[in-house]
Amino acid sequence: MKKEKTVKEQLLAKMEQISTYLSKSEPKSEAVKLAAEIVREDGVLIYTSADEFAVGVDAWVKDGEETVVAPDGEHKLEDGRVLIVAGGVVESINEVADDEELNDDAPVTRAEFTQTLKDLHEALGLQSQILSAIEFQATEDNKASEAIKTELAELKEAKEALETKLAATPAAKSVKESKGEKKALNLSKAQISELSTKDYIKLTREYPELLKN
Fold first, then answer.
1. What is the pLDDT of residue 112?
2. Per-residue pLDDT averaged across 61-72, rounded?
3. Is the pTM of this model over 0.70?
4. Number of domains in the chain
5. In a domain, 177, yes or no
6. Distance between CA atoms of residues 194 and 196, nearest Å
7. Is the Cβ–Cβ distance between 123 and 109 less than 8 Å?
8. Which pLDDT score, from 0 to 100, does residue 82 have?
9. What count of other Cβ atoms lies within 10 Å of the Cβ of residue 130?
10. Domain containing 189: what range?
């Protein structure tokens, strides 16, 4: 890596350039020792007496057989950089943009296209599976809902049938009422007189009215 010039060295070089520029309005090529050159995008060569182009070095161009101070302004180089010249001195050098910025519009390779297509198919396949699962669950939910509705309808019908049956059934007599009822006595006096003493006593207990006869 080349050592950068100190500020003092750059100032001395600039003073020398200005002195040369003022002493010769049209400097000859033999008056400038050219050490490095750089190519503009239009093919024109820009020269400098320094070992390499950097901020603060002189800048020259060929005009026929003569070497003259490079015009002020921007000089776009073939490598993409922009050289800014002011008063015959390099004021700044704008470097090339990052590779990512330069390759934004670069064509896609076959491998990249294949991988992108594969990723797209996988994404679409996953989306299809998710949609199928959602549709299946919705169908199952609908089936369950219909089954519940059917069961509720059947229970309702059974309840209504039971209520109708209960309404048509006469009320049962209470136990008390059942015990209070007596069977009608269908025995004639002759039959009663033929009863044994034990049966007669039992019968009169149940039918005390017989004692009155």
1. 80
2. 85
3. no
4. 2
5. no
6. 7
7. no
8. 92
9. 10
10. 185-212
Query: Which comes out higher in pLDDT, residue 95 or 19?
Result: 95
Q: Give the tokens for residue 170.
A: 């006469």
Quote the Cα angle for 13-11-73, to 5°: 80
**Structural domain contains residue 1:** no
Q: Which of 57, 81, 96 is the last residue of a domain?
A: 96
Residue 60: closest CA among 97, 35, 80, 41? 35
Residue 37, phi then psi, degrees to nearest 5: -140, 160
Q: How far is CA 73 from CA 20, 91, 178, 211, in A?
A: 20, 9, 129, 154
Per-residue confidence (pLDDT) for residue 79, from 0 to 100? 87
pLDDT number for residue 58: 92
Q: What are phi and psi of 63, to 5 degrees?
A: -120, 90
Residue 72 in any domain: the answer is yes
DSSP3 helix / strand / coil % (the chain, rounded to 5): 50, 15, 35
pLDDT > 50? residue 15: yes
61, 76, 96 — which closes off a domain?
A: 96
Across the chain, the runs of DSSP E, i.e. the strands, are 36-39, 45-48, 60-63, 66-69, 73-76, 82-86, 89-94
11-16, Cβ contacts within 8 angstroms, sequence gap of 24 or more: 11/56, 13/50, 13/56, 13/57, 13/58, 14/56, 14/58, 14/89
Q: Mean pLDDT in the chain?
A: 76
Decide if 197 is inside a domain: yes
**Integer Cα distance of 212 and 189 in angstroms:** 12
